[in-house]
What does this fold into?
Amino acid sequence: MAGVALVAVLVGVLAGGGDDTPKDTAKSGASAAQSVAPSANGGDAGVTPEAKAQAQAMSDLLGTASSSRTSVVNAVAAVGKCQNLPDSQAALTAAAGQRQDLLTKLGALKVDKLTDGAKLVTQLQQAWQASATADSEYAQWAGDLTGGCDPAKAKDNDHLRNGDAASGTATTAKKQAAELWGAIAGKTGLPNKSAGEL
It folds into this structure.
């Protein structure tokens, strides 16, 4: 009977040992696979903490760039119809001030660790300065019409023409800036921005 019991114990031990080994091996294999698997987030691989921080600061600023876009579009449309002239003028004047605020904040950012960071700043400066000029010209256009406005003649105005020219300059610079930012965003895993969002 003792011999039978001993055999039963040995069989149990062997059976238990044979079950643990594949599990351990599978776990080791899974761990190894995880260690070499590429990150799902990808974008910021090889980016230094300094570059990431600078890119994040720029992204935060760009995120505020289009805050006045809707009010500007609506104000210009209203002025062309001789509607809400005082309010439209005030909205356009405020928008010009917001562009200047963007320029001030842009000048405080560090971009030396970003690829083509200096070029990006130059294009944004040109874009936002031109946008500020356009908004200011449109505001003066509204002011010209406040004393008396004929919708048929409202668009025959030098301030309107100057505003349109400045707006075109801004659009060109924004397209360049959007491309430059797109390259940086792709490397750092940050959101892209279209020209219209700048």
Q: What stands out?
A: Helices lie at 2-36, 49-62, 69-80, 85-107, 117-146, 158-188.
